[in-house]
């Protein structure tokens, strides 16, 4: 395989990020014909198709490896320019990260806020379930992830962060309606439950561990962390909330814990590209420092 040129890598990343050749051409201040020629030259050099010409365009499996490489080169180029200039460089493309919704709403933004204001970079946050976020690392869509996957994705390093602890809770009115004798989850219960989305198996797994049975109750799907918690407070159903979102209400009587003494701990990990980037290094330090105080540690 022949080597890719720097302008080709920039073009490839732009096409994937912009979604079309025409939009990428505008962002690069070149003609669509020039973009098309660069992509053809890259595919000729690789000996295989790198882009699916869909709308928007998508990288093939081989293209995902090229996209990851292109973004790594871009980040290293920005780091070098900042170091050589001796000043904060003009912000480049935002650093893409993937974070699960509950971390995003409880502790992760504190890590970003703790970074020095003169760092000179921005971040693009993708929200994905912690069980599925590693997929975005594999495709090259993001540079780092908060994930539940302890095995490192190829080309990434992994570090444990701690565990996000959840409690099963419901509103007092909900408990009075469905369990007049007091809160109690039992096999065969038809008490409605709130799930984040159809990939969310936290409530199902908790119910099975508690009762030994499958959860067959009606379900609400509320795909936003804040609204998920609000749905439980309003009595739509029971569900598991991070301690940061529910224990104050439990203490005040605004929520009822359904299984005291039986929390659910979800271990989280930080996976990032293995490149020596000062920005990624600082970000990693900030994430680990914040997690050390906000998550349950061994």
The number of helical elements comes to 11
Q: Say how many strands there are.
A: 11
Percent range for β-strand residues: 15-25%
SSE order in H/E notation?
Answer: HHHEEHEHEHEEHEHEHEHEEH
Low-pLDDT stretches: none
CATH homology superfamily name of the domain at 164-265: Periplasmic binding protein-like II
Question: Brief overview, please?
Answer:
The chain is α/β, with parallel strands linked by helices and 298 residues long. The chain has helices at residues 6-18, 21-28, 32-46, 61-85, 101-113, 134-139, 172-178, 202-211, 225-233, 243-252, 278-294, and strands spanning 51-52, 58-59, 95-99, 123-127, 144-147, 156-170, 193-195, 219-221, 239-242, 256-257, 264-273.
Word description of this protein:
Among the domains are: 91 residues, Arc Repressor Mutant, subunit A (Orthogonal Bundle), CATH 1.10.10.10; 102 residues, Periplasmic binding protein-like II (D-Maltodextrin-Binding Protein, domain 2, 3-Layer(aba) Sandwich), CATH 3.40.190.10. It is built from eleven helices and eleven strands. The strands form three sheets. Strands 3, 4, 5, 6, 9, 10 and 11 form a seven-stranded mixed beta sheet that branches. It has a two-stranded antiparallel ribbon with strand order 1-2. A two-stranded parallel ribbon has the order 7-8. Helix 1 packs across helix 3 and helix 5 crosses helix 11. The mean pLDDT is 90.
